[in-house]
Records
---
Amino acid sequence: MATMVPRLSRLRDTLSAVTSLPAGAPVIGLSAYSTRARWGIWDTDAVLLPKRYTEAIVRAGGVPVLLAPIPGVIEAALDRLDGLLLAGGPDVDPARYGQERGPDTQPAVVDRDQAEVDLLATAVDAGLPVLGICRGMQLINVARGGSLIQHLPTVLHHDEHAPGPGAYGSHPVAVAPGSKLATVLGRTAVPGVPTYHHQGVDAIGAGLVASAWATDGTVEAVEDPELPFCVAVQWHPEEGDDDALFQALVTAAKQVRPARAGAHSVPT
C-alpha cells in the first residue's frame, strides 16, 4: 500500500499538468523502442516507450512526442521539436566502440543505434537541449568516441545497478560541485536513485565530462559543458519522485523555442 501513495500522487500531478499546459508549450521528442509487443488480441511489431517518460515531460510542462527509430527519417522531425530525450533501452552495439559483443551483451539493434546517433548529431547542430537517460547516456558517450563496460558485474563483482530482471535497484550518487547536473538537482549528494543497467561508461567521449558517480566508482552522469544543455544520467529519474531533470529540459526548450518559432509553422 505504501508504494501506491507516490504513484497516485504522480498520477494526480500528471492529470493536473495536462489540464494546465499552455498554448505553445515546448514539444519534446522522445526516442522510442521498435520491438515486439502484445496487447489485447494483438502480437506484432510496435513502436513504444514506458508511459512514465511521457508523464514526466507533461508534469514538467512539455508536450511529449514519440520518435520511431527509423534512420534517415527520424531526424527530419527535429524541425518541429524544441528538445530531445534519448531514453533507456537495449545495449548499444559494441562494434560502435571497437569491441566484439560479449556473452552478456544483448544483440545489436542497428536501426535504433543509427537513428539515435543521427538524432543526437542533428539536435546538437540545431541547438536543441538534450537529456539522456540510461541507454541514452551510453549512446551519447559512444557517439562522442567513448566506450562502455559491457557487463558491470564482471568488473564490480556485484549486481547493485540491476539487482534482478525487471526490478529497479537504488543506490546513492555523488554529484560534481559546480556541474550543470548539480545546478539542476540543487544538491551534490543524492541518497538514492532508481537504477537498472548492467553496462556503464568506460572511456569518456570527446567533449564530455563526468558529473556524478556511484560509491563503487561507476560514472552516473556526463555532460557537455560547452553546450547550453546536454546532460545525461545513468539512472532512471522517470521512476523516481524528482522531476528536476525533466523540468530543466523543458525550461531549456522554452528558451530555444522563440528562435525556432518559424520552423514550427505549418505550410499552407
---
Amino acid sequence: MPTSLSGSATASGLNLTVELDPRDRAVAAGAAVVVRVRATETEDSVAIIDDAAVELVRTLTYAYRRANAYGPSSNAIERVVTVIDRSPLDGVAGLAPGEVIERAAVVKVPVDGPGTTAGRIIQVAWSVHVRFVLAGRPDAIAGRALVVRSPAEECADDGRTEPVEAARRGVDMSFRELSARTVRSGVPLTGTLHIAAERSVPARMVRVELVLREEVERGPGAGGNGPRGAAEDGQESQTVVARTVVACRPFAPGQWLDVPFTLEVPTPLPAPSLRLPGLRIRWELRGVVDLPLRLDPRLTLGLVGATTAPE
C-alpha cells in the first residue's frame, strides 16, 4: 500500500500514528531522529505481527535526456528510493482487538546527507516510515516527511575557487567587498562588481546574478568506457535566483564602473550544494556586461549553498 506521510494511516485493521522529535521535523545532516509509534488494532481479530520497524528513507529524483536512434531525444525521470537506516521495534508480536501499543525508536541521518533538495531537475526528499509486517494481511505503513538541512561540506571547495572570466572583449571585471562565499536562506548577498574598459566597449547594461546550476551527467544504466548509449545523455538546468540590473553607457578605454549589488536570497533555500555520483548542484555569482549582437563578457565566482544555520 502507499505510505501515508500525514503521520497516521489505517490499513489491514491496524491504525498507526507516527510522531517525530524534533516536532518541526527539520534536522541537520548527522542528527538523530526520535520516532514515536502508536499502533491500535481496529478489527475483531488478533493481529499477528511478523516484523515491525522504523525506516529512514531517501528518495532521489532526477531528470535526464533519453536518446532515440529514430528521432529526437526526450526527457525522462529516474527515481531511486533507498532505506538509509532501520531500527526494529522490539517486543511487538501481536495485538488483540482494541489493544494499543506505544514504542519509540531512533534513526540517524548520515553526516554527508545530502540535504533536502527542491531543484528543477534534481530533488532529494527524506521521510521516516513505520512498517508493520502482518501475518495473512497486507503490510501496514505510515510515515512523516523529514527536512534535512545540509552544510554542504563535501562542496566546500566551491567557495574557494578563483573567478572565471569568459568572452572578455576588452572588459576587466572583479568582485569586491563580497559579504560571503556561502549562500544561506534569507541572508542577502552584497558586494560590488568592478568593471574597467581596456578598449571601447558598447555596453548597454550590467547584470549581477545569483545562479543555481544543476548538472545530471548521465541517465541510469550508463557506465563503462565504451560508446555512448541511450541512457547516457545528461542534462543541465540554470536558474537565476536573484538579479540586479543596472543600465550604463558604452565604455571608453580607461573608464571604469562600480556596480554595488544586494541579492535577496530566498527562504527556504531551494537546494544546498550537492555532489553525488553523476549529479552536481552548484551556486554561482555571475557578473555580465550586456553587449549588442555579440557574446557578453562575464565573470563567474563559485559559491557554496548551505541550508544549515551558521555556527
---
Amino acid sequence: MNLEMSDNDDEIFLFENVVKHLVSTYECSNDAAIRMVNEYYKKFTDPEYCSKFDISTQNEEFFSHIAARGMTDRVYYYTELNNKPNEEKFIIWQRSVRGVENL
C-alpha cells in the first residue's frame, strides 16, 4: 500500500513521518496508518468535502505548519475515530490525549 497524494517531496516526507508516528504512538499497523493518511489527505484537500463543513481545504502550507506530530493526531482523530471536522472538539480531544503542557 502506498501513499496517495501529490508529488510534492515535502508533503510525502511529512506524511511518511505521520505513518511512522501512527504506528508508534497509536499502535496502528503500517497498512492501517497508510490507509488513514490516504483517507485524511483525500478528504481534507477536497474542496467539496471541506465546503460541507465550512472549512478551508488544507495544503502544504497547512501541513508543514502543523508538522508531523500534530498531523498524526489529526489523522487519527478524523479517520480512525471517525470524527467530523470540528476544530474546537479536536483541540479538546488532543489536549486530553497529549496534555495541555505538551501542545
---
Amino acid sequence: MNGERYIDLHSLNIVNLLGLEPSKKYQEEIDGWLFNVNEYIGEFYLDTNNMLAYTESNFEKLKISNTLSIEQLKYSELYNKLFFKVENSLSGLECVVSMGNDYLLEHIDVFANKQFEFILELYVALHIKNVISKFNVKTSFNHPFIFRIELCNTSYDDAYHIIEEIRKINVEISEKIPKLFAAVQVQSCKIDRIMKNVHLSDFLRTLYNYEDLNALIEDLESLIDILSKFEKLS
C-alpha cells in the first residue's frame, strides 16, 4: 500500500475488499513462502492501525498466525470428532485450546458424571502443561478445558512444534476418554470430600501451575509438619 508493506495479522481489513475486482492476480514468493497476490486500483479504505509493519519478526508472527488458522480449519473440517479444538484468537497472537462441542455431545454421559469430569480436567491439564513446559511460552488455564497459549514472543518453529504436540495429545486423549470413563465406573473414586470442600476451579489452576501433583503433595506435607511444630510450641 503506497509502496509500503504491511502485515494484517488477522485479515481484519478483508471486509474492505469484498466486492472489489482485482486489477491483477499473481503469485509471489516472500521469504520462502508463496502468496497469492491481488492488486486493486481505486478508492477503498484499509485501517493501518490493525496492521504491523513488514519486518522479519512480524513476518514470523504472520507465519504463526497462518499456521494457527490452518489448524483451526483442520479441526472444523477433519478433526471435529476429537476432544480439543484449536483456535486462532484475535487477541494478539494467541492459541486457544478448548473442548469441541461435537465431542461433548457425542459423550454427554461422560461429562454428566461430575467426579469423572473433575478427574479428567486434572489429567488433561497436567498433560497440556507438560507439553507447554518444554517451550518458552506463557500459558493460562482460567476455565475448565480452556487453555490459552501466548505465541507472540516465540519462533515459528516452536509454535509449529507446539501445535503438533497438542494434536498428538488430542488424538491420544480422545481415544482414551471412553476407556478411562469405563474404568472409573468400575472403581470406587473416593474424592467426594475434596469435591465438597474445595473450589474446584481454584484447585485446578493451582495444580496447573505446579505441573506435578506429587510436588503439591510434598508442599502440603511440609505445611502439615510446620503447623504441627507450631502446635507443640503453643
